[in-house]
Amino acid sequence: MGTDTLPAVDLDRITALAAELRELLGEAAVSDEDAALERVSVDGSTLSPVIMQKLPLGRAQLVVYPTDAEGIAVAVGAAVRHGVPITPRGKGTGNYGQAIPMAGGLVIDTSKARSIVEVGDGYLIADAGAPMIQIEQAANRTGQQVLMFPSTVQSTVGGFVSGGSGGTGSIKHGMLTSIVGGYVRSLDVVHAEPDARLIHLEAEQAHNYLHNYGVTGIIARVEVALEPQQPWSAFYASFDDFHDAFELIRPMAALEPTPRLVSADLPTLADALPNDEALPAGKASLRVILDESTIEAATRLVEQAGGTVEAVRPGLQNTMKLSMVSYNHPIEWLQKAYPGVYFHVEVGGDALVDRIDEVHEIYPGAMLHLEAMAQGTPGGMLAAPYTGEADLLAGFDRMRAIDVGFHNPHQWFVDYEPERSVELAKSTDPQGLLNPGKLVEPDVDTGRKR
Ligand SMILES: Cc1cc2nc3c(=O)[nH]c(=O)nc-3n(C[C@H](O)[C@H](O)[C@H](O)COP(=O)(O)OP(=O)(O)OC[C@H]3O[C@@H](n4cnc5c(N)ncnc54)[C@H](O)[C@@H]3O)c2cc1C
């Protein structure tokens, strides 16, 4: 185990907890088999060469699979009574190590608690393990859509609101934590108490449980806001010069109605994506999920910039496909094409377009994957060949010098208002059993533990 790993729990307590969970939730809901424990002890952190070198960071000793929100509360209560640490888990796609059980103990895998409980006018209630794509499909059946979903469309709603930040829909609606009460309307959470139960929290209070990896409470049920469904199409354009594609990020994002997604890539990144005739080899790519009423205006923008419209494909299946090659995905595909070569840093700000050539000089061999983020502000990932953590950190000063905002993703600590989570966890998790190892004070500059 790596040096950051915490001591595991003694076996007697694990055995006693396993027996109680089998009693409470049934034989099939509990496993201590090696393959199951291995599977729930890793997440998407293989995307980070920095964290890769520190793996394994922890290993589950027991896993439970509740099938509904109430079962999640039962599992939490049992673990607390036995003093066993609890790491919640959705689909395990999160970056970067946040779902790794660093103190061993129990992993609550919510992926079988996937019911859509209710869909009404402007809202949808689902158990924490419901996949985001299933939520969007359920909303569409009532003529509605979710405001936003991540590019990992198979990930769970509980995992997204606990570990994610934004995605398709963010241009109009912003990022998860910036829209208090607007995305997550309410939550049913479970605190680390021996008689754990579902606690219903509305908007502002629910906000204290977002993007903090379950350290203040396990999310068992989520109510998300819905809006009227729109006729979306997947729009692909190509360019000889990537500057022309990047220049279009802001005008595309300014179309009305607002597009759901605008992504752009250099030829090397676009070539690494799954084969598609709408992604011609050697060309920069611009991809937009747009309302069908804006197809003409988008086409004009592309042609005026000297680009070619490669395809316009309507419908959910096509737009989901485009979501699934946005945000971190081009980096993941780049790593598949060039194993062991690239790392990335999350970046943002107008400088990404206005000073792109300087941005590419931040690291030798750097390439930007660009997205339109909230209100069309450019954001994305800067990928470059990995030459060590010291070189990676040294790039941050160069970013500050040219007004590039950045977030170091190569760490697993709660970094969204951690003070707030520390304060709340004193009452909701007095024994420190919830996702241990994640709630420490990070250094905002380096992302390392202070
Ligand atoms: C290639 C790639 C692309 C990605 N693109 C995006 C993107 O576009 N937007 C984005 O926001 N993220 C993105 N991510 C990160 C991640 O995939 C998403 O945030 C995803 O929604 C997480 O959901 P999950 O079910 O996989 O959660 P997990 O990875 O299982 O969990 C995420 C975190 O939340 C905790 N957690 C899980 N369930 C609960 C619960 N019920 N209660 C409390 N805590 C819980 C876990 O312990 C962990 O700390 C990407 C990751 C990869 C690898």
UniProtKB/TrEMBL annotation:
State the superkingdom: Bacteria
Question: Which residue intervals make up region (Disordered)?
Answer: 424-450
FAD-binding PCMH-type domain: residues covered: 55-229
Which InterPro entries does this one have? Answer: FAD-bd_PCMH (IPR016166), FAD-bd_PCMH-like_sf (IPR036318), FAD-bd_PCMH_sub2 (IPR016169), Oxid_FAD_bind_N (IPR006094)
Q: What is this protein called?
A: FAD-binding oxidoreductase
